[in-house]
Amino acid sequence: MKTRKFLLPAATAGILALTLSACGGGGGGTTGGGGTDAEANLDGRGPITYVQGKDNSNVVRPLVEKWNAAHPNEKVTFKEQTDQADQQHDDLVQHYQAKDANYDVASVDVVWTAEFAAKGWLQPLKDKMAVDTTGMLKPTVDAGSYKGTLYAAPVSSDGGILYYRKDLVPTAPKTWAEMMDMCSIAKANNIGCYSGQFKQYEGLTVNASEAINSFGGSVLDKDGKPSLNTADAKAGLENLIKAYKDGNIPQEAITYQEEESRRAFQSGNLLFLRNWPYVYNLATTEGSSVVKDKLGMTALPGKDGPGASSLGGHSAAVSVYSKNKATALDFVKFLVDAEQQKFFATQGSLAPVLGDLYEDKELVAKLPYLPVLKTSIENAVPRPVTPFYPAVTQAIQENSYAALKGEKSAEQALSDMQKSIESAGAGS
Amino acid sequence: MSTSTAATDLRARQDKGRKTAQNREKWAQGRTYISAAVILIWCLAPAYWMVVTAFREVGFTYDTSILPTHVTLDNFATAFDTSFGNRFGQALLNSIFIGVVVTAVSLLIGVFAAYALARLNFRFKFLVLGFILGASMFPGVALITPLFQLFTNIGWMGTYQALIIPSISFVLPLTVYTLTSFFREMPWELEESARVDGCTQGQAFRKVIMPLAAPAIFTTAILAFISSWNEFLIASQLSSDATQPVTVAIASFAGAQPNQIPYTAIMAAGTIVTIPLVILVLVFQRKIVAGLTAGAVK
Amino acid sequence: MATELGPTPVKKPASGGPEVHHAPKGVGEDNKLMSQGRWASWLLAPTIIALGVVIVYPIISAIVMSFQKDAGLDPVTGLFTAGGPAGIQNYVNWIGQQCAAPGGGTIACPPGTLGGQFWSATTTTFIFTIITVTFETILGFWMAMIMARTFKGRSLIRAAVLVPWAIPTAVTAQLWLFIFDFEGIANKLFNASILWTGSEWPAKWAVIIADTWKTTPFMALLILAGLQMIPAEVYEAAKVDGATAWQRFRLITLPLVKPALMVAILFRTLDALRMFDLPYILTQGANNTTTLSILVINQIRQGFNAAAALSTITFIIIFLVAFIFVRFLGANVVEQSGATGKGKK
After folding, report:
1. Do A241 and A222 reside in the same domain of the chain?
2. Which residues in chain A are closer than 8 Å to C306, comparing Cβ atoms?
3. Of A215, A274, A360, B115, which cross-links A196 as Cys (Cβ 3.0–4.6 Å)?
4. Contact by Cβ (8 Å): A41, A325
């Protein structure tokens, strides 16, 4: 009697929990295929939502207003996520898992496309839903495609640029070997020679992949299988290891993310810096910058010519759960249209995906790095396009970090990467 | 038990003690100030760095001069600027609202539970305690997805209750345990004797028990409030633009350029949210707790 | 009212007034117990329901998922398909550090997989917990003792102590990242060139320092509240009796503060075992600073069911630690009282 009286509330809580567990579906496996969802609502029109990370430079809002003025019955609501990529990713995953019909169009980082496509969350952009990709730089289209089908229309791109001190370096290096030879200049001036981003994080994947790709290696082959046990990949990774060991890459570079490396270059402590285009605007304007008039830019150095940059940027994807896919598609086409692309570039310094814009005089006057960036993006290799991207980037980061610090040889690191990626692909 | 034996033991040394007592008092006071200074530096030095950085121009973010240089108020303006969709002001209000509700509710139901655990005799007490404690053992990061699905199913996504209820559950175990341990130590006999003296049970509780419990309840309230104030993971996934708390708003700060980390604005935001909180706690402490406990406890 | 409290020692002698929670022995005991039980169930219901909805439901759903395989890729369509039941495979994989082999079956996890980090993450988690909780306890106790004294500027100290804790963790982590930058203020002040986030022990110490700084106030406040419940008269009496400071501390302060102290240590330990934000932002788990919670969130992004298994393992580890605490270290807030009153007589 007493027992029951006391246990009643507890039991209620327990039963409640069990019921809820049944409703929630336990989240078991993911819903593969998405076949039926992908067929539905292709002609639907009406209000939609566009989801994107923090709109740093206020480019999305004016564009949404412009769209809404022209389409009063198909208005777009802008849902802004946080500024952090991981959280944007997790937010999208949560909403797709819950089959949220309100996430009609989302801005997807190039490295998430394959994962989301393989989960069956993205509407294939083909047939009725096709988006015209002529005029777009090819690597950006590849980055939005999975298994030969376009799933996300490229909206903005990004590529690595080699910044250098044009007051100290007479002619920009074209190859890695040339750049290493010029490190004597850095020594003579008592500054560091070269840095990219070598902290163990996503940026290291970018830098390590660039080293590997620039020497003819590749992380994944055409079928998405790892292909790291090659002489080319080894030569590429060894370049980084040797440069770090010799001090051509300063020891503190293994704590650098984008901002720390920019700071080192801007304060005059580096001769060469691999970074994204954003550095140009800051290094030429910030009060603390000592390189304002000494900033040179060129393509990343490779084996015999320009190296292969990793590709950044975002694409617009339509959710298979959207109710108004016709409107969603129109909005995606609107975003990749030349007029909007130009606005992204002028207002937000976002690299366009349309090749012609890189020769636009007005744009080049405003963003002098565009010609260099075009070379960079044209030679770019998308970061591994794989639905197992989180596992692949983990494998690259952890092993190349250990190799940089001299804890394992390039060969060993590459073979460990190979095994880790194989294991991820084997499913658990 | 050890208290009383100690007291008897010590009485023997009474005389010797008195002679040096005054000297010792001065020395003790001096040491107190030195310790206080050390504590002050330890607690405030990193915070000082936050404030100094908050007042620096963005272009000089990495300046390492100890004293403020390149002073500007721009970062505070940036933090509160709403033109680009920042809602820092709104988020501040949200955080306060969520914090107050979480604190009030968790204290209220925590006091019930703690009273039962400390003062009542019943079966399965150990089980209940284990259950409550067990709730603080699961990695918080793993709770998000089930909660997201639950709240999506019942249409609570982005609402205040979707932020408040998980927050209450996170602070409840601590609240209950803290209050229970304090309630156990309270001299409840006094309540009885007050009633013998003619107080009603209500008066006895209000005038005797409350003042005694005030520091404990107040401390628990601070613990609850700050832990809700700091909550980020759940809020980052379950809040909407209208309900997001300040931690999420800060994570949304973005530099003028992609990849640029707006350290100075983040530090400004940190300063903005810290100072009022500290003042609030101080005022409460002085007015309310001091009032309640006047004379009762040190 | 205050006068009433004056001469009262902390605990009444055994012969003192009736204590409500002492069920009178004999005839009425059963009835008394029942009515107290009924009361207790009503008083506890809100707490149990609140915890049931938000904590128990996710835990149960995670446990269910942990026995499922993660989605695998269909090689033909390139789409993920649900994994099906896994039995205890997820658990076996974590504990044995086994990963899927390309041809089926499992192999020892190669470096660069999350599966290979289980034991190092467990070790790291315990190292962080033991060191930070020890530091925080000692520092917190000391701070509380100082704050409990009467001196000019006491409110200033009390406010200052709150500052580290009132700064949201997201800001704290960025602040320390900034301080521990290679060209940051920490290296400058101590004229050092330490790669704080670039090698194992400096990275660990960076996390430990930041965590200790941030959460010591939690300890200090809880202990302070415990101290404040000791009537000043007890100390006065002991002082008059000539007790040295150390004797007063050992024989009065420590025993009387013990319940509050144990609760503080217990909850700090549970929190530290789930440490996440600070190492995640400071080092992203590099250089052996990956804690179990970081491993969980990294794994969530790779496969939810294996992550659910890891969460459950973490839960069990923490449960064992808490059990040891409560059972052997006396962090038990009520049980001895239920049986023997206030643990004295």
Report:
1. yes
2. 428
3. A274
4. yes
Same domain, yes or no: A295 and A284? yes
pTM over 0.95: no
Kindly state the DSSP code that residue A88 receives in the 8-state scheme: H
Angle between helices A325-336 and A338-348 (to 10 degrees): 60
A33 within a domain of the structure (yes/no): yes
Here the ipTM equals: 0.87
CATH of the domain at A239: 3.40.190.10
* Close Cβ partners of A229 (under 8 Å, ≥ 6 residues apart): A414, A415, A418
Q: Does residue A4 sit within a domain?
A: no
Q: What is the C-alpha to C-alpha distance for residues C166 and C158, in angstroms, rounded to an integer? A: 13
Residues of A in contact with C206 (CB under 8 A): none
Sequential DSSP letters for C106-141: EEEPPBTBSGGGHHHHHHHHHHHHHHHHHHHHHHHH
In a domain, A17, yes or no: no
- Across the interface, whether the CB atoms of C251 and B143 are under 8 A apart is answered no
DSSP secondary-structure letter at A152? S
Interface contact C170, partner A, CB < 8 A: no
Does residue A13 lie in a domain region? no
Residue-wise pLDDT tens digits, C138-191? 999 999 989 888 888 888 888 888 899 889 888 898 899 989 999 889 999 998
One-letter identity of residue C337: S
Does A85 lie at the interface with B, CB-CB under 8 angstroms?
A: no
Which sign, positive or negative, has the C-alpha torsion A110, A115, A119, A125? positive
For an interface test with A, the pick among B69, B72, B149, B172 (most A C-beta atoms closer than 10 Å) comes out as B149
The helix (run of H) or strand (run of E) holding residue B289 is none
Structural domain total, chain A: 2
**Two tokens at B254?**
């973005």
Query: Which of A84, A267, A281 faces B251 most closely, judged by CB atoms?
Result: A84
Assess whether A264 and A397 both reside in one domain: yes
Nearest chain A CA: its distance from B281 CA (Å): 30
Structure tokens at C49: 């329901």
Tell me which residue of C144, C164, C163, C142 sits closest to C154, measured CA to CA. C144
CB contact A58 to B (< 8 Å): yes
Q: What is the pLDDT of residues A196-219, one digit of tens each?
A: 999 999 999 999 999 999 999 999
d(CA A180, CA A240): 11
CA contacts within 13 A on the Cβ side of A28: 11
Q: Calculate Rg over the CA atoms of chain B.
A: 25
What is the rounded distance in angstroms from the CA atom of residue C299 to the CA atom of residue C113? Answer: 10
Neighbours of C87 (CB within 10 A): 10
A324, A47 Cβ separation under 8 angstroms: yes
Q: Which residues of C touch A199 (CB under 8 A)?
A: 197-198, 284, 286
Name the strand (E) or helix (H) holding A161: strand A161-165
**Nearest CB to B251: which of A57, A83, A258?**
A83
User: Residue B196: exposed, middle, or buried by beta-carbon count in 10 A (0-12, 13-18, 19+)?
Assistant: exposed
CA–CA dist B110, A12 (Å, integer): 19
Beta bridge partners of A194: A272
Give pLDDT tens digits for B125-177.
Answer: 888 888 998 888 888 888 888 888 888 888 888 899 999 999 999 999 999 99
Phi, psi of C246 (to 5 degrees): -65, -40
CB contact (8 A) between residue B149 and residue A25? yes
CA distance B140 to B158: 19
Residues of the domain holding A279? 161-309+385-424
Whole-number Cα distances in Å, A90 to A48, A196, B228, C293, C305 = 21, 27, 22, 16, 16
End-of-domain residue from the set A366, A382, A398: A382
Q: Are A316 and A106 in contact (CB under 8 A)?
A: yes
B151-158: long-range contacts, CB 8 A cutoff, minimum separation 24 = B151/B238, B152/A98, B152/A100, B153/A23, B153/A24, B157/B238, B157/B240, B158/B238, B158/B239, B158/B240, B158/B242, B158/B243
For residues A280 and A251, state if they share a domain: yes
